[in-house]
Automatic annotation (TrEMBL):
Organism: Catellatospora bangladeshensis
GO aspect biological process, one term: regulation of DNA-templated transcription
Protein name per Swiss-Prot or TrEMBL: LuxR family transcriptional regulator
Stored InterPro entries: AAA_16 (IPR041664), P-loop_NTPase (IPR027417), Sig_transdc_resp-reg_C-effctor (IPR016032), Tscrpt_reg_LuxR_C (IPR000792), WH-like_DNA-bd_sf (IPR036388)
SUPFAM superfamilies named among the record's database cross-references: C-terminal effector domain of the bipartite response regulators (SSF46894), P-loop containing nucleoside triphosphate hydrolases (SSF52540)
Source taxonomy: Bacteria, Bacillati, Actinomycetota, Actinomycetes, Micromonosporales
Domain HTH luxR-type stretches: 836-899
Keywords recorded for this protein, A-Z: ATP-binding, Nucleotide-binding
Amino acid sequence: MIGRDRELRQLTQLVAARRPAVVFVGGEPGIGKTRLVRELLTTLPEQAVALVGQAEPDSLARPYELLLDAVDGVDVPAGRLTALTDPQLSPVERLHSGLSLVADLSGEAPTVIVFEDLHWADSESAALFERLADTDGPRLLVGTYRPDEVSNRHPLASLLERMERRHAVTHLRLERLTESETAALLATVTGRPVPYRTAAALFHRTGGNPFFLEELLGSCAPGDLESLVEKPLPWSLAEVLRRQVASLDPAAQRVVEAAAVLGRRAPFDLLAEVTGAGEDELIGVLRDLVVRGVLVEAGEDEFSFRHALVREAITGQMLGRQRRRLHESALEALQRGGDADPALVAHHAQAAGRYADMVSAARRGALEYLAIGSAYQALQLAEMGMAEEPDDLVLLSAAARAAWLAGLLDDAAGYARRWRDLADGPADRADALYLLIRLSWEADDLPWLERVTADLEQLIAELPPGADQARAMTAVAQSAMLRDYDDESLAWADRALALAAEFDLPQIRLAALVEKGTVLTGYSERAVEGRAILSGLVAEAERRGEWVLAARALNRLLHMPQTSSLTEQAELLERMRRDAERAGFEALAVAAYYQGRARLAMREGDLRAAIGALDDGRARDRGYHYSGRRADYHAVFLAGLCLESGALDRVRRLLADLGGIEKVDPMVLHSVGFHLACRDGDLATADALLDRVLDALRAQPWRSGEQAHDLLSAALHLGLPLPRLKQLSEALLDGQVWDHWRTLVEAQVAEVCGRTAAAFDGYRSVAGTPLLAPAVNGTAHLGAARCLLALGRDAEAADRVNRAGELLRHWAGWRVEQLTQLQAQLGLAPADSRHTVTGIAALTTREREVALLVADGLTNAELARRLYISPRTAAVHVSSILRKLGVTSRTEVTTALTH
């Protein structure tokens, strides 16, 4: 059920409610309406009754066709079926016979009644559907139909209108699969992730229609998926598609053939030139083709085929000379226009055999598409040109950059190496090496990164002072930053900045500042300086069109310990996504974006939402085959959150996935495995893995306070012997760690060592700091509470526990278990009754922000725009705020907040 989870969940919820409900499921042929219904039926309880009737195109001649089909095979007395079609009975009597039959078959059991393809239904079946909607009982009534076949005069149109007036009707419109859903479907069928190129090509070839995808998949061997990109359509599918245009008159046929040759989108003016049709004539033909469902108006004065494969089926029937003549006519028309899309020019030039024109257009188009962030399109154009000119440096450099931005690292590396080897001067070679530095890091190949950096350092001496030398220095600064050689990175960045100032090189200044600011944000004592550098360069980078630099700077800011509001963080995240999309930078526009959403949810203290955000991102990437650092971008983060929530079985599956990735960081496997063993209570495994963790830490040049807290907390949960515990904490804190994390971890160690007063001072000093997430703050309060209990200060301990309860209200797992234990010790309300808290104290951090905006008079739509959430989510927040504050209107919120 790829891409249909939400719709299936809605249907199952309606069945579970055991109340009368009506659902209309709409969508084009092959979109998955029948499959959705079948999947719903598999979820029904054993005692449920299911009646499914299928209409046929010729069913108008047979009354109650849908009901008769639904009860086919059911033991029903013949006389009752005859009553449905007996001409001696009045229409009302026959209708009541149908209603009575359904009622007898249903009884009191939960029932699902499905009428498939209502657009073909006979009038009696439609009337029965309408009357069934009026009946009581635990009954879900589902009707499927094709919206494009329902005109204003169609009986179903008036039925839909009447049902809307009289009932609470749910409409589910099934859309075509997205590109990522297409990749997920292909991966599910084949049992392995698919290359991005294959998924993209099949998505464009089928338009994301599941039926077409399945038909194509059925025509090839499971391991030969790539062949489907160019393989001819199966005969049966081609015949189905050709039938859509078989009855067209010659004028319409000529337009359809021209549109098929012109590509995915056919501009009106180009169609007119190629076909020689007058404007009025062409408008009339196109209107008819749109009404028939052959074409759709895809944009202003642009037309495309409703189903992409129809175009392919039509061109497959045309003569080769006929296709070439149409392509040549289109090419000449585009060249006369002067400002045509170079991708269109290249496409028609190639098909017309005009290869010099094709290479020229591909060269120009690749650069233009790169400039607007269409990385994959730029790559396709560059590769089209290189089919004729494989050593063209402009095309090679464009292909390498485009493939990198699109996440196709192997392709990018191949093109970048050829670009480097064919470079006709040190400046061009330096540019290729700059990209190879980034590629070697993303491929997680440290030896390669070292070699490329050494080559670039040697090349710097050959370059004269100026832009080329400064750009090369910036590349070396980035390499050092990526390898955690911070002092070296700062030195190279400062050298590049000096040259940028001397020769007035604003773009290079921005690039060097990104590397310098990124390094400085890793030092607690210089983080403010680093933040200022990165914050200060974003607007200028955007103004100059340096979208990659702007997105990188914003991404780094989002990873820093935050003191700004959630609203400001959400704005930064959306700004990063927009800039990354403008660059076509897939890694930040998609993968990093979902991780950013997860971090925002953690700052709200909402563990379920954080896991949901990572699941969304993982689902978006899951169908594709990635290598290097993006092989499973979300798995480590997700495993950490699952360890938080106690979903240990899921952690085991994630760990198995990580173990199957080539070149996975051993520290990842050892630390997640150690943490899992601790939560599992497996002392022997944890002790064995601890030595591997310690070895990996010695090889890890950086330290993370979050990593230290997570691993130490797990060790404390297990009851690791004190000497081993101290050994772990010393290794985790042996380096640069932010003060608030260091203090928290040292307090945890002090508590277990019996130094209660010192532990309390540590917990107290960090509890409540905005630099820690709410859940971690809650743990600090609980630690302080345990210390206060040990010191005999029970009232203060109770206050700490209550504050922790507020912070952990949307959390789960071991932190909440600690909370529940302390509540029991102090005789406080258990964790599951915390919802009784009311007033301002009951509001979450996000709800407080929303409440202040409501008090300022913002509507739900304005809240949605300000907070980058949907209006529906805004409405949910407002409803929760009114309930918790005990008020009934938005105007009362201001009063409640000020008292």
